[in-house]
């Protein structure tokens, strides 16, 4: 019986199998139970090398038997060590990695099946398998126990046969592109990456899947993908290449990311081509300040330093996580589409270095029908070709497409890298038409536009709305971009009176310098419980002290503020500062806190379109604040029409730009009571 009889192939499958020879494999065979304990790229290598179409059943059975014999379970480690000790030699299948110790003049290998046992590696094994030093290789390893050679490290890797291909012929890969139409090539790429092409027939979904692959072919590309669960956000990268490292939640540190100062060993950014932070919402960063600061520098420059050690690397970063959806769009509960990230990553300077945001909510969930069964490139070969394509660049051709004016250098870099990566995937021979090039540039611009829109929502004082698109394109068609654009101009607090919702104003500071103003959205709820105040979402002791001082002011004057005594005694006041891009501290939001707390306890809505700035003393006096002009400009940008300011700064308003004064009605007040009378509905 022929292999093809049991696995019906399409016309494209037969064409690819005939043209690509042993570079292609029938993907369904890699799903055989015998291979489930091996990465897919290893399974496919074994199939392509050892399975013949006419004897495929017997060949698979032989591979299965060999894997069962040589691939030890983790719980059998001690038995394996006993065998090594008793017989003096074992042969096993494992993912072996080597490193060079210059100080000790030795090469050491890591064989996971042997646990923490040190394994010496001869120069001859390294010379024949340099991939052992480049992130490791799967293969058959023969380990000898020789305490007479080195009593402290008696184990030696005496032979290694890799299950992965050597350096591929990239020119041959480029030449193969000309033998397929664009649609055929796109389908072949999907099947090579493990997706059933027929399950993703529309062009846009395919482009989203190809965007996931861009960090493999383009250097130093940083992506975010948030979407529903089970859409395969890391399925592709995790299985496509051993050069990909996945951090699955948990904790990461400067030592494992960058360099271990104790051992001088370079971390994963220097030894992999892509680092994926999966389940990013549950990832923590040890030595948080150092890690994030070093990541920022690396994302910008491709370089990182620790102590006196300095390195350059080209690994891309992918941040993947989950986001709740409503239908086929992100849930409207999100003020911005970066909320699921950890707090330490909600930083505009960090996020501006992200090149693209993939809308994971548009990618269908992975089902059995989504998994490739037809013919594609052998995964290990395919992954190595993609890594080699990193040396190419189509940036010059991308720059020939004019973009809208006003883009930053980071915008332009993002569009160039994303488009160059897509071109390498879909047109590795460089023969894209002008129409195909424009399509890819527009798509790359959309991915960057999504990043920029979130930055505008996070830090409106620093980031202004602009269209990241080719000059020939008037607007992006993605639904979430259109909806967010509308939401930005239809702020609920500008048109609706809401109980417990007040707008404060703040100044943004960079490196000790004031760089603009920002709005702070304050939410207050009165909930049944013991009397008191709970504060969440704030950054800094001064803000928390300001809330407590205002709460004490309200308690002392609750009758004057129209608050029922029983409610004050039986309810806890919960104050939350809606997540914003930069840490805020200082007392100047005290007046906004007072309005929000009284509104919640008295059940009186805050009038629409109002914002507040002013420090509130324990007896209710409203004191002066800094950065008044920047704060008022932020209020105007946010669409607020009325701003309450300290009476002592009323004259300072006259020095503001005419466009700001024309957009706002300024209300100077000397006490919190005056502000409450102005801002709360009866």
UniProtKB/TrEMBL annotation:
The active site is at residues 588, 631. It catalyses: Hydrolysis of proteins in presence of ATP. Residues 496-682 form the Lon proteolytic domain. The keyword Hydrolase applies. Belongs to the peptidase S16 family. PANTHER family: ATP DEPENDENT LON PROTEASE FAMILY MEMBER. This is endopeptidase La. The gene is lon.
